[in-house]
Each structure stands twice: as structure tokens, then as C-alpha cells.
Amino acid sequence: MTESSAIPTDEFAAPDVPRLVVRTTELDPDVHAGLDLLQTLPAEEATAWVRRGEGLVGHGEAARLDVAGPDRFAIAVRWWDKLAESAAVRDEIGEPGTGLVGFGSFAFADDPGHSALVVPRVVLGRRGDRRWLTTISVEPALPTVPSLPSLFGTPPPPERPQGVVFADGALTGAQWASAVADAVRRIDAGDLDKVVLARDLLAVAEKPVDFRWPLARIARDYPACWTYAVRGLIGATPEMLVRLENGLVTSRVLAGTIRRTNDDARDLALAASLARSSKDLEEHEYAVRSVADSLAPHCTSMNVPESPFVLHLPNVMHLATDLAGVLADGSSALELAAALHPSAAVCGTPTPVALSLIAELEHMDRGRYAGPVGWVDAAGNGEWGIALRCAQVDSEDPRRLRLYAGCGIVADSVPESELAEAQAKLVPVRDALTPDPNDTSASAPALDQP
Ligand SMILES: C=C(O[C@H]1C=CC=C(C(=O)O)[C@@H]1O)C(=O)O
């Protein structure tokens, strides 16, 4: 039974919340040493936030907020605060991610802006050597959580997606490249400095896609990324919008990209050229500035490195900057994510001009792509990534998925190169939906334990 809350009519008011009964217990590390969080996931009502085997997965839904529009973050913050205040919690660990936890995924744009915050019925977590189980039930209902043995048995493995074909989404490649050229003209005319333009791709399989297959594959192939699943949005993002852990705020900003070649020596030379590319450094600087400016009112002792490093992923390399600060105002991770969205890594500079150019040139609704995705706990700790390198499973027809990728456009951008960059960013999810030539098994790939 899920307590689902509809969008409230009062501005910024949160809907009534159920009173939740929450219990976290530590799992015996000897008994559960091999616990693979993603492999426990059920096919329905599953949520995940996992990197290198650590993180959180959720089973079922004890409560959910569906929210839309420009006030989606403010309403979600209120709902979360009310839930956390009224919950009865017994937490024998008391670390970030234990006790009451909600997983969320927010739309990029205000309109229509459909977003969700989900409190699972069961959360399994792992941080270092510690593993825990949290059960959440709605008072006064009986705590009908799934029986524990059923959680630790491996659920039937997901089937490999069959016969997936890909097609252009809103725009063909050529149309999208021409939209990039339009954006460059607008930048040259002085309307704005940077805009991030995205495109979508449709994937259609012969049978409904079990999201757990691509999720396991992408987690295996992109271990440096945060693998996530919230209400049909799945992916592995390399970009941490904000993490809040016991008062320490960190963020990993990415912008500026070069494709990899499968030749290590060549890739090293390309990484060096990326680190010197004035076009990419400019694109990166806007993104870092936007995050630093949005965090500044909430933090003291901010550390913003002067120059980026190069983050190597299997498909691309990015300019990356890790920012850190000390929380000064008691904001929760969810409030910080709301303050940071949309950063110039996914929108542009100045933000309002970039937002309206995106609406004009992309010809699609980004949905929850490029919005914050992650989790928050009752103490306000949490991790919110930017939902990149993702696919949205169609809730009405799960044979269909929409994939998204975007590129930062500045004055020196070349449309054909941006199109190639967008294709490279689609590779992780595309590959995860197509047969792996090295894998002869019919079931989901096992994850390497760190
Ligand atoms: C918007 C995306 O990437 C962002 C993050 C890293 C590098 C980016 C770039 O170089 O354009 C983008 O700012 C995407 O992957 O869809």
C-alpha cells in the first residue's frame, strides 16, 4: 500500500503526510559480505543510487509525492520536512543514508515539470564495510514489509532486452546540428554566453524492457558514475550536483568534453589538448561559476579550484572541478539541489535566456533528464546528481525508452563536432540496451565487487 500524495493547491504548501514508522538495523558483515545492492532489486517499484557497490537501493513504496510545475522543489522540501518531523525512527547506525530516506527525481523544466519523491518500504544500504536494512511502514497499518529472507535471495534475473532498434527523437541529427548553429549565431549576436542543447533518441524493444538489465550493465561498465533508478528513469551520471554529509558540502562540476578513441596513448594526448582547449575551458568556467555562485549563500570556507582536472570515462573525457564548502545555514541536500538547479552544465549563462532558448530550439520536453536525481535523509544529508546518460522507460509501453544527451554550446562550438559529442554521450545507455559481444549469458551481468 503506497500513501501517494497529489499536487497541493496551496502555493508551497505540502500535502498531508502519513506518519511513518522507520527502523534501521545493521546487517552482519560476515553473513552479508557478498550483498550486491543492485542484484536485490525487484522488477517493479525499485529505486537505486549506487556507485562501486556502495549506496542505497529501495524496494516498494511506503509514501510518494508526485509534484509538478515551478514550485516542485519548494513543495517537495516541505513534504520531506513534514514526513521527517512526524516519523517514528529507530536507527541503530545514525549515519548518512540510514533511518528515513527518500529517493527523488526532478524535472529539468518548470512546465510540465513532473517530478517525484519516493519513500521505499525497504532500503538496503552499504557504506564501506557497513551494511544495513531499513524498513518503513505507514502507521497505523501493520508493518507488512517483505519478509527478510526474500530480500536476500536473488530475485529471478532480468531478461536481456531483445531486438532493440533506435530512431531519432524530436530532431534528426542534421536538424539538431542546425539548432546548434542557430545557438552559436545567438551567442555571436550577444544574446547569451552559453547554452546546453540536448537531443533525444527513441529505443524500441520487441518486449517490455526490464530496467534491471541495462542498469546492471551500465553500473558494471561505468564504475566512476553514480547509477540511479527512480520511477522509470535509469542511468549512470558522472556529475554530482551536490552531496551533503554531516555539514560538508561537495559538488563535482563537469563541462567540456572530448571523445575517447580506444587508443590509450592517443587518449592521453587528447586529454592534454582538452585541458588546454580555450573553448572547453570557457564552457567549463560558466558551469563552475554557476555552482559556486549558487552555493555561496549556503556555505562558508568554499574551496573552488582554479583549474579543472580531466575525468576519464570509458566513452568520453570531461573537464571536471570538485568544489567543497562548509554548510552555514542548515539547508538539506534537497534544498541545496533546488538552489543549484539548473546549473550551467545543463542550462547555460545567463540562466533565463538559456532556458528560453532551450525551449525554442530543442523541440522536446526533457522530462527528468538533466534534473536533480538522488536521495535525502531525515537529517538532511543526501546526494543529488544531475540525471545525465539516462533513459526514461515509457510507463504506458515499457518496450519504449527515450534516451537523452546534451552539449554545452559556446561561441566557438562547431555543430558537427557537437553532434558527434552527443552521440558519444548516448553510448553508455545504447550499449546497455544492445547485446554485449563478450557476454554469452542470458541473464544480467554481475557487478564486480570493489
Ligand atoms: C548535458 C550533458 O553533459 C554535461 C556534462 C558534462 C559535459 C558536458 C559538455 O561538455 O557539454 C555537459 O555540460 C549530457 O551528458 O547530456
UniProtKB/TrEMBL annotation:
<keyword id="KW-0413">Isomerase</keyword>
<comment type="similarity">
    <text>Belongs to the isochorismate synthase family.</text>
</comment>
<protein>
    <recommendedName>
        <fullName>isochorismate synthase</fullName>
        <ecNumber>5.4.4.2</ecNumber>
    </recommendedName>
</protein>
<dbReference type="Pfam" id="PF00425">
    <property type="entry name" value="Chorismate_bind"/>
</dbReference>
<dbReference type="GO" id="GO:0008909">
    <property type="term" value="F:isochorismate synthase activity"/>
</dbReference>
<feature type="domain" description="Chorismate-utilising enzyme C-terminal">
    <location>
        <begin position="174"/>
        <end position="425"/>
    </location>
</feature>
<dbReference type="InterPro" id="IPR004561">
    <property type="entry name" value="IsoChor_synthase"/>
</dbReference>
<dbReference type="InterPro" id="IPR005801">
    <property type="entry name" value="ADC_synthase"/>
</dbReference>
<feature type="region of interest" description="Disordered">
    <location>
        <begin position="430"/>
        <end position="450"/>
    </location>
</feature>
<dbReference type="InterPro" id="IPR015890">
    <property type="entry name" value="Chorismate_C"/>
</dbReference>
